Amino acid sequence: MHYEYSLNHSPNKTLKFEIFTEDNPKIKAEQFYQNKSSFKQLGQTKGRIWMTWNNTKDMSENIFVQNIHISPQYSLQQFKQDFKHSARRINPSGKAQVLILEHNQAKAYLNHPQEFSPPYTAYLNFQFKDGKLAQFAIQQALGC
């Protein structure tokens, strides 16, 4: 079971906190999740943090991933140069995902990709349209 709390900064930009009961075993009552209406009320609750831009034209933040600048002008061609392994798995609709892994996790993935099960880790979701970045999301593994 999971719960979500969201802030919509604009129609094209959302901050979301996603809570899973298995990440918070000390909280026994389901009511804890149901009567919260703000991030402050969650206190030390663990959850996944998402920042999503549904239209990258509204993306004004400076986003850097391993010294790579992700901007509204970011292209599919640049993605293929910057994230070679992830680019191999881009689907025909233009969706791609980049996992942010520790060195030993990346090595395990490269050695046995079909057996790899991603841990709680940060990742980036890219959606390209006509070769340009149309949507973008950052997921920060587990935060408090």
Textual characterization of the structure:
This protein is α+β, with helices and mostly antiparallel strands. 17% of the residues lie in helices and 39% in strands. It contains four helices and eight strands; from the N terminus they run ββαβββααβαββ. The protein has helices at residues 31-34, 76-82, 84-87, 103-111, and strands spanning 2-10, 13-20, 47-53, 63-65, 68-70, 95-100, 122-129, 132-143. It has a six-stranded antiparallel beta sheet with strand order 1-2-3-8-7-6, with no helix packed on it. Strands 4-5 form a two-stranded antiparallel sheet. A hairpin with a 2-residue loop joins strand 7 and strand 8. The mean pLDDT is 80.
What is the fold's blueprint, element by element?
Layout: E1 2-10, E2 13-20, H1 31-34, E3 47-53, E4 63-65, E5 68-70, H2 76-82, H3 84-87, E6 95-100, H4 103-111, E7 122-129, E8 132-143
Antiparallel strand pairs: 1-2, 2-3, 3-8, 4-5, 6-7, 7-8
Spans of at least 5 consecutive residues with low confidence: none
Helix content: 10-25%
Largest sheet: 6 strands, antiparallel
Q: Could you tell me the radius of gyration in angstroms?
A: 17 Å
Task: Give the class from helix and strand content and strand pairing.
Answer: alpha+beta
N- and C-termini, Cα separation? 18 Å
Helix count?
A: 4
Name the shape in a single word: globular
Oligomer: single chain
Q: What number is the mean pLDDT?
A: 80
Fraction of residues in β-strands: 35-45%
One letter per element, helices H and strands E, the order comes to: EEHEEEHHEHEE
Number of strands: 8
Please state how the strands of the largest beta sheet are arranged side by side: 1-2-3-8-7-6
